[in-house]
From TrEMBL:
SMART domains: Fe_hyd_SSU, NADH-G_4Fe-4S_3
Residue ranges occupied by any 4Fe-4S His(Cys)3-ligated-type domain in the UniProt entry: 78-117
CDD domains assigned: fer2
Keywords: 2Fe-2S, 4Fe-4S, Iron, Iron-sulfur, Membrane, Metal-binding, NAD, Repeat, Translocase
Domain 4Fe-4S ferredoxin-type: 137-167, 180-209
GO molecular function, one term: ferredoxin hydrogenase activity
Protein name: 2Fe-2S iron-sulfur cluster binding domain-containing protein
Major place of residence: membrane
Organism: Acetobacterium paludosum
Organism ancestry: Bacteria, Bacillati, Bacillota, Clostridia, Eubacteriales
Annotated localization: Membrane
Keyword field contains 4Fe-4S: yes
């Protein structure tokens, strides 16, 4: 252990602890901008400078390991002055159109300028970044706001294993860009948006489709239907001041109705249908010698990754469309037919915790009889903006239900939004189907939690043990894909892959949480709690027991994996 003094207080910490970490243990706040716990600890922004008694130069607390006997000052006049100068320099090269920036009031740079009382920028002159890259369907990169903290590049490379962003140039010409100055649309970006939710400023944001939604709602010839992903309800409340982990399902449904959608439906319904289709597909593969392990197919960023980098694994992918698209496809077919609406006059809008869903909805193969399954996908953040701009007092809304039938869902569907949730939902149904009984113990805790790669064996019948694997976050998925390629997963039957760390609750379209807050809380865990609580409170917690899903098969789809179900709900992949 190491014993040293910080602002006069003695503290003992394990060897290797940085000054920044030690300070937090004593509730001493040191400002940071580039720091991302465990991911980007590079001392680049010089905001965390501290003084060490006897040393000439100030040191970056985020990378400086404590040593026995040192005396650290985190708030001396020298430190205060240096931080202000450094912050002014960063601000001098930053596009400060704060009032109209999407990150206004949720910007770590703006917050720091206020906290450090920096209001006049003495440095004037040319600015460095000029490019605004808006060619991607999901992500806009605005160099005029980039502060070169490299958080996006670190997340893209280390967490997601995608690595399409990196530092180029030196000195004044430094930029963080895709290679050769290309657009994100021209490199292997998987549209996950993890760069966005880890950007401290507005240099990265989703491509907004809000106006497209308004245009549809305001078009009297269109029936506009909205569906909301499981994870949206777990985080939308944060935009309106609710503590993290508060589910706001009822208020969300009420808000959507007031925004003017004709029907307010739930992607959870499609998630229940997905379990029917995917569960049946799995049972088929297990009993007919099909390709195993079967891999879930609902995370569109990761589908793109497999198509690009592991095309040999395409036969392992479930042929099921994602719940988002199953819902849309059923609305454009079954719902349109039963309500005598021409699907061409219908606009399906999805609200997703995900920026890759904007890419997914545009995929050509995801249509029914030429009608795109989902027309527009917006993020949780965009929905919050629509609610705010409409002056809806979200916190005062009553709790309302989704519209019936396509708004009916089970506990199994809601947990889709957390890593391990799709697996748990599938196992609940597969075990019941194979045992031909209503099993009561359905909390499969072995598949829950935020460990990067989890394996479990589930005894589904006395004669059948299903070996499952769950992974989330691109770097973990890559490990799994390499193991698959090397033939090391021959004993595994079913794999759930989610591109974002923690699954959709931490998707690239979710409300943005400052790095400082993420030092103290694990947002993946907190938001998942909202989903598991909602699951536990549902009377029906298994997809195959959803009465509206049962009815859908009876009146339309016949049975899971039927010819009709395949036509509407399944897809193919491209290499
Ligand atoms: Fe997800 Fe899914 S869970 S992919 O994580 O299978 O985005 O929430 O909607 O489609 O249901 C996301 C979440 C979401 C799909 C479902």
């Amino acid at each position: 252990d190491i014993t040293f003094k910080i602002n006069g207080q003695e503290i003992t910490v394990p060897e290797g602890t940085t000054i920044l970490e030690a300070a937090r243990l004593k509730d001493i706040d040191i400002p940071t901008l580039c720091y991302l716990k465990g991911i980007n600890e590079i001392g680049a922004c010089r905001m965390c400078l501290v003084e060490i008694a006897g040393a000439k130069a100030l040191q970056a607390a985020c990378v400086y390991p404590v040593a026995n006997g040192i005396e650290v000052l985190t708030n001396s006049p020298k430190v205060q002055k240096a931080r202000k100068v450094n912050l002014s320099l960063i601000l001098s090269d930053h596009n400060r159109e704060c009032t109209t920036c999407v990150r206004s009031e949720n910007c770590e740079l703006q917050a720091l300028a206020n906290e450090l009382d920096v209001h006049d920028i003495p440095f004037q002159g040319e600015k460095s970044g000029h490019t605004i890259d808006d060619l991607s369907t999901s992500i806009i990169r605005d160099e005029t706001k980039c502060i070169l903290c490299k958080r996006c590049a670190a997340v893209c490379t280390k967490v997601q294993a995608v690595g399409v962003l990196g530092a180029v140039g030196r000195g004044f010409t430094s930029q963080v860009q895709p290679v050769f100055g290309r657009s994100l649309a021209e490199v292997g970006c998987i549209n996950c948006g993890q760069c966005i939710i880890n950007c401290p400023v507005g240099a990265l944001k989703e491509k907004s489709n809000i106006q497209d939604v308004w245009d549809a709602i305001n078009d009297p010839t269109k029936t506009v239907i909205v569906e909301t992903a499981p994870a949206v309800r777990a985080a939308l409340g944060e935009e309106f001041g609710y503590p993290m982990g508060t589910p706001v399902t009822g208020k969300m449904a009420a808000a959507l109705r007031r925004l003017g959608f004709d029907k307010v439906f739930d992607t959870d319904f499609g998630a229940d249908v997905t379990i029917m289709e995917e569960g049946t597909e799995l049972i088929g593969r297990l009993t007919n010698g099909g390709v195993l392990p079967m891999i879930t197919s609902c995370s569109p960023g990761w589908i793109k990754y497999i198509e690009t980098y592991y095309p040999e694994a395409i036969p392992n992918l479930s042929s099921c469309k994602s719940p988002q698209n199953m819902t849309g496809a059923l609305l454009k077919s079954h719902y349109a037919e039963t309500n005598k609406i021409d699907p061409k006059d219908m606009v399906v809008v999805s609200v997703m915790p995900c920026t890759a869903k904007k890419y997914e909805v545009q995929r050509e193969e995801l249509n029914v009889d030429g009608n795109q399954d989902v027309d527009i996908s917006i993020t949780t953040r965009e929905l919050a903006r629509m609610i705010k701009s409409s002056r809806i007092m979200f916190n005062r809304l009553p709790d309302e239900d989704f519209d019936s039938y396509y708004g009916d869902s089970t506990g199994a569907a809601v947990i889709f939004g957390a890593t391990g949730g799709v697996m748990e939902a599938a196992v609940r149904t597969v075990a019941d189907v194979l045992n031909k009984k209503d099993i009561q113990e359905i909390d499969y805790v072995a598949v829950r939690g935020v460990e990067g790669i989890k394996r479990a064996s589930v005894q589904v019948t006395p004669d059948l043990t299903v070996n499952v694997l769950m992974a989330h976050g691109g770097s973990n998925l890559k490990i799994v894909m390499d193991q698959l390629k090397a033939g090391e997963l021959k004993d595994v039957h079913f794999i759930e892959l989610m591109a974002c760390p923690g699954g959709c609750v931490n998707g690239g379209g979710q409300p943005i949480v400052a790095a400082k807050e993420k030092m103290d809380i694990d947002i993946r865990v907190e938001r998942a709690k909202a989903l598991y609580t909602e699951d536990a409170n549902k009377t029906i917690r298994k997809s195959h027991q959803n009465p509206s899903v049962i009815r859908l098969y009876e009146e339309y789809l016949e049975e899971p994996n039927s010819h009709k179900a395949h036509h509407i709900l399944h897809t193919t992949y491209s290499q």
